[in-house]
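[stage:ingest] chain + small molecule (zinc ion)
[stage:ingest] validated
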Amino acid sequence: MSRLFKASGILSFCFFLIPVFVFTQEENQNQDALFIKEIHREALSHGFGYEVLRHITQDVGHRLAGSEGAAAAVEYTKQVMQDEGLEVRLQECEVPRWVRGEPSEVRIVNSEQIGTKLLNSLALGNTISTPKTGLTAPIVEVTSLDEVDKLGSTLQGKIVFYNRPADVTQYRTFNAYGGAVDQRVFGASRAAKYGAIGVIVRSINPALDDIPHTGSCVYTDPTQQIPAIAISTNDAVLLSALNKRETIKINMISHGRMLTPTISYNVIGEIRGSEFPDEIILVGGHLDSWDVGEGAHDDGTGCAHAIDVLHILRKLNYQPKRTIRCVMFMNEENGLKGALAYQEASDANGEFHLAAIESDSGGFTPRGFSCDADSEVFAKYFQKMTQWNNLLEPYYISLEKGGSGADINPLKSQKGMLIGLRPDSQRYFDYHHTSTDTFDKVNRRELELGSAAMASLVFLIDKYGL
Ligand SMILES: [Zn+2]
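[stage:predict] done
[stage:export] tokens:
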């Protein structure tokens, strides 16, 4: 056999192989596109996730960690997962137990221009109470924690009013939120350092309206705790305008208090993988919510999405190669104890999360996924994921680099891909942490499209790995 003949033999062999390979890849893409279409058909047809959401929000109601609502939500989602044929277990975690008590009050008491006026207020989560008759003092308006440091001891005996607005020019409202939230979380601790007796905080919401927003306040020094209450954005504008013309005194009353910690649970259900059971793909949301409204967009929709993903795949008789695990995390809002208990147990058991997807940005129309990992892992995994762009584009779903979710973030050290569902964010902060975050604010189709987007990505990661 001549050298030339051998070479041409290899060539013809290659020519024969390449078209077959291309055909197979095309064939796979077609099959995948069809399956993703089936996922959407299933998600949009049967209203399963919407019914789960209805129960968590309307029947159970709000679900702050340690509350009766939280316990009822644990029982209900455990039952739903069992009915879905998943292997289910509860994972214990010790959670803080804060109670709001009677509604808070913030009242302007001395304005020459308007007399006395009760403002729309809502105590911040974890806050301590005031004396029964409240605290009365002049306010000092600031727009940052640094400004508090500069004012220092002049704040002695005053009530600090944090009034930096969320930046309305940000396209992504989560960025506007991120740019203002330090006042709510650390404002009380910072002001207490200089002898302030209380703080009121402008609600973190780009819109101007009358609805106050709660959220966690963190006391960094347990010996220096002062009460903290949010007021609506409209009232913050009014208070600021009045205070520019005269020194305004307010009376603030809060009844919040921290009880002894209690035991609660993460709810975990899974289908074990047939080929690579040790590679876990997690889908999750957090089961707890604030103690006002029904915790619909935050985060009933995330819980409904996660359970719906498993339901959709089961209805389509999909047999996963990898372990698909659904997790309802407890206590995201005021402690993250569920997430930490989960990560500790997972690490101790030597588990590996190939991917974790959290939905905790509302139940609006999905726009894409935000992906996060160690830089080396990210480069490798993300490149693989972008090969699926043409399968996701028909549903307007894109993949980008960015943060994932508070509950899955501790899993980063396992060197898998962490992923956050990113729905349209324009209306999310109308409802976030308020009494108006209720079931009726969730559009059924938008919710279902979120489940379908997550199920599609889970399917692709399961089928091809990362
Ligand atoms: Zn949330």
